[in-house]
Structure formats: structure tokens, C-alpha cells
Amino acid sequence: MGNNKRHRNDKLDKFQRKLRKIQKELESIRQSSSSSSSESESDYDSQVSYQEVLSPVPDELQPIMEQPVVDAVEILGVDPLATRPTGPDVHEQIASRWTIFLQKGIEKVDRKELTEKYPPPNNVPALNPPKMNPEIQGCLTENLNKQDSFLTKVQEQLSAAICAVAIPLNTFFSSAADDTNPHLLHLANAAKLLADVHHTISSHRRYGVSGTLDHSVKKTVMDRPIDEWLFGSNLGDNVKSTKEIQKASADLKLKRINRPTYRPNSIQSNQPTTSSATPLNFKRQSSKFRRKKEEGGRKDRPVQQQRWGGEKRKEPPRRRT
């Protein structure tokens, strides 16, 4: 694939060089018209050049000629050092206050008043931060409990922000004449982004406590949908059902029986061992090592006593030959 493309590019470069050469010849022919002989030669050369120019493009180069010219900068991609695109400027009074809020935050009293000023509506209970399940609460450490409480308060502020945006949205939808208001789209997008952040924090809360869960029930707990509770309602019943299913599966599963195996020297020792005790790469002792071991054991044996003339005497030493 790459060789064919390179071959087509080489032919295209050759064709372009030929075209530039012909253009130069045409320019020289136009400038040189001093004598009739030169004019006749120029007419002949121009006819040849025009014929070469007007000759049809080869079929294999036709797709390349039809492709649009791509800028080299576009091939390199987006500049990683390029600054992020900015939107239109806001009013100076708005910009100065937002900068302070983003850098230093708002006062604790103001935060509490604004959070209480915009309570969640009755028909959207999901705006309330989901509560931690009691079954999971008992597994958390003190630090995890503090972290979850902090994230819950952040979700309460997000809920109040969404409710504040909902007030002008309700005004627009209440009046049929305001359905085409251009500001309606921006308010709807702001509410959508805030709702997504609210859900992201809930997912982060679940992930933060997942390390304390048992592996056998972790998947069951994490797959539960978020509702009023962070891990869904009736979590205890689902965990019990999972445990019962796992126990029933273990009872029905065919158990593997480990048959005893014997080592190579099991005939002498008569001590059978299981397959787990005998490694697969067991190497039998060499005959030379066994011979030395037997000779050493023979030396340790008590001296055999035989009768010589009715008396017990020591066995005479053997002569070496």
C-alpha cells in the first residue's frame, strides 16, 4: 500500500517537472521572435509543447490530481503550545467578581445562604445528593467518611446552582412567545453541564469506597444504579442473593480429586506423596551419587561377627587387589 502511494507520488512529481519545463520553453518561445527561421522553429516547438501539455493525464495519476492540496501545517496537527480559544469578553463588573470567586471562593455565610435559597424541586429528587448506604457506611474508615461528606456538600452547591438556572428556564417555557429566545439555549447548556458534574461526583464517591468491598460482591455492588442511595436501594438483599448464588454454584461444581503419586524412591521409603508435593521438574539422583551413599552406609554398619573355631571373632580385613 505504501509502495504504491510512493510510486504514484513519484510519477506526479515527474509530471509536474515536465510541465514546468514546458512552461519555460513557451516563455522562451514568446520572447524569441527576431527572425523567420526562429519563428518557424518556435511554431514547431510550441506545437510539440502544446501537444505534450494537452496530452491526457494517465489514469493512475487522475485520483492524485483530483485530491485537494493539503497544507503542511495541517499535516503536523494542532500545535500543543497553542492557547485555548477564548469566548467573548464579559462585562468588567462581572469579570472582577468572578475572578475573586474563582481564586478565593465565597464567604461561608454566603455559601450557606445561597445553597438554602435554591432548594431542589419535588419532581426532580435526583438533584439531592445520594446518601451512602448503611451497609457500605460500616466498611469505611474515618478518612473515607470525611471525604464522602465533603463531596456531598459540593453536590449540594451544584444542586442549588442547577435550581437557580431552572428559574429563567421555567419562565421561558411558561410563555409561548419566549420559545425562540436566543438565551434559552445557553441556559439549557449550562444546566446540562452542571448536571453532568453532579453525576461525575457521585461516580467518584462510589469509586473512592470500592477498595473496601469484598471481591466476591464488588461487581454486584458497583453495577447497582444510583437513586436515592449511592449504591441503589435494597443493597443488602442483592448482596445476600449474590452470596447464595455463589454458594449454590460451589456446591454444584465438580470437585477435582488429587490422586496420590509416588516419588522415584518410594519403593524403598514406602511414603506416598501427593502430586502437589512432587515437583514436575524432579531430577533423579545419579548412579554415582547413589553408589557413594551406599558405601557410606555400609561403613556405618556394625561389624559382622562370624564363628571361627567355635569363638566369635572379627571378620578379617579384605585385601585390595
Describe the protein in words.
Residues 292-302 have a biased composition (Basic and acidic residues). Residues 31-49 have a biased composition (Low complexity). This protein is mainly alpha-helical and 321 residues long. Among the domains are: 2-70; 106-252. The chain is 59% helix and 4% strand. It is built from 13 helices and four strands. The strands form two sheets. A two-stranded antiparallel sheet has the order 1-2. Strands 3-4 form a two-stranded antiparallel ribbon. The longest helix has 33 residues, at 142-174. The protein is flat, with a radius of gyration of 46 Å. It starts with a helix and ends in a 7-residue tail after the last strand.
Q: Cα distance, first to last residue? A: 84 Å
- What oligomeric state is this? single chain
Into which percent range does the helicity of residues fall?
A: 55-70%
The parts where pLDDT drops under 50 for at least 5 residues are 48-54, 304-309
| Helix/strand class | mainly alpha
**What's the story with the biggest beta sheet?**
2 strands, antiparallel
Q: Determine Rg (CA atoms, Å).
A: 46 Å
- What portion of the residues fall into strands of 2 or more residues? under 5%
Query: Which word captures the global form?
Result: flat
Order of helices and strands: HHHHHHHHHHHEHEHEE
Strand adjacency order, main sheet: 1-2
Number of helices: 13
Number of strands: 4
Integer average pLDDT: 75
Biased composition (Polar residues): 263-279
Biased composition (Basic and acidic residues): 292-302
Biased composition (Low complexity): 31-49
Region (Disordered): 25-49, 255-321
